[in-house]
Design brief:
By secondary structure, this protein is an alpha/beta fold. It contains 14 helices and 7 strands. The strands form 2 sheets. A 5-stranded parallel beta sheet has the order 2-3-6-1-7, with helices on both faces. Strands 4-5 form a two-stranded antiparallel sheet. Helix 4 packs across helix 5 (94-102), helix 4 crosses helix 11 (255-267) and helix 13 crosses helix 14 (306-323).
């Protein structure tokens, strides 16, 4: 059935991840991280640079793309996940905005869950290399959930990921086949992750847990002139335009390695030495002091979820500080 098909696909995906990891190790992944960090250190205003390059991709969406990128970095670098939900009318650029930011995240931290069931999610602990820690520091993408059916189909799975984001542990009793016999086992997932998806507001209903765990963005619909102008400039063919296009296109081969480097710097563990189970809960190697506590308090105001939003604001500030 559908569950078996998902399970088989998870096995195939696991094998692909193993091949990708082997390829990373063989192709000088460490050298690429070191070179990217050296280049990044010479940028005067790193986050401004990233935002500027992203703006050339989708003119007028710099802020939304940066917000998406910062929330993704909260999961990968800080291990303090913030989820992301993009809302807006059809063809407004929701998915493009998300994908633009995801392109700047190392692929090993992005998992496409599409329409995976809760059982399929929990069974991934059996087939993926990291076992029950396979979701640790991972951004779980549910894609475009524009219709009510999409929302209903993924509701339970999204709740699983939302609970994992906060608690770092979930478990489920499932039927497991071993040696042509079936048995009941309790499988679990460990580590903290986040979710991301896009949707159409009128077809969506967000529960309080999902709202409190995510930041919402909404693409602009008044940036048509800027969008076409930047695209036209990049396609002119002049030396200046070609140089700018190379910088924009080269972002995907630069920033993901920076994210890897900053993850190593903040947590004090090289990617080659990572052990999710041993590293979980450890104090970071770098302490970031936030001088904006009063500002955060004023921004939150009288919101009932002030405890969770305070944590979100502080995490965002920490990511921005680290990126700069």
């Amino acid at each position: 059935g559908a569950l078996s098909e998902k399970y088989s696909q998870a096995v195939k995906d696991a094998e692909e991840k193993k091949k990708e990891e082997f390829k990373r190790n063989q192709s000088g992944y460490r050298q690429k991280i070191d070179e990217a960090m050296s280049k990044y250190a010479n940028l005067n205003n790193p986050l401004e640079y990233i935002g500027s390059m992203m703006d050339w991709r989708m003119a007028g969406e710099r802020v939304n793309q940066l917000i998406a990128f910062i929330t993704f970095c909260s999961t990968v670098i800080l291990k303090e996940p913030i989820s992301l939900i993009a809302t807006g009318r059809g063809s407004s650029g929701k998915t493009a905005t998300i994908n633009s930011a995801l392109d700047l995240i190392p692929k090993r931290f992005v998992m496409d869950l599409d329409r995976s069931t809760p059982s399929a999610l929990i069974r991934m602990s059996q087939v993926l290399e990291k076992g029950s820690w396979c979701f640790d520091s991972v951004i779980c993408s549910f894609g475009d959930l524009g219709g009510k059916t999409d929302q209903e189909t993924t509701a339970e799975s999204r709740k699983y990921i939302a609970n994992l984001q906060t608690d770092g542990h979930i478990s489920k009793t499932v039927t497991v086949k071993k040696d042509n016999d079936f048995s009941i086992e309790e499988l679990c997932l460990n580590g903290k992750c986040s979710f991301v998806y896009s949707t159409v507001p009128e077809n969506s209903s967000f529960d309080s847990q999902e709202e409190s765990r995510a930041i919402f963005i909404q693409p602009h619909r008044d940036n048509k002139t800027e969008y076409f102008l930047m695209q036209d400039i990049l396609s002119i063919g002049s030396d200046v335009a070609k140089e700018q296009k190379e910088k924009v296109d080269g972002l995907d081969n630069f920033i993901p390695y920076v994210v890897e480097g900053l993850r190593e710097l903040y947590n004090g563990v090289k990617f080659e030495d990572e052990n999710p189970e041993e590293d979980y809960g450890k104090e970071p190697a770098i302490q970031i002091i936030n001088p904006h506590k009063r500002t955060i308090k004023d921004c939150i105001g009288k919101n009932e979820s002030y405890k969770r939003y305070k944590k979100q604001f502080e995490t965002v500030i920490k990511v921005i500080t680290l990126l700069n």
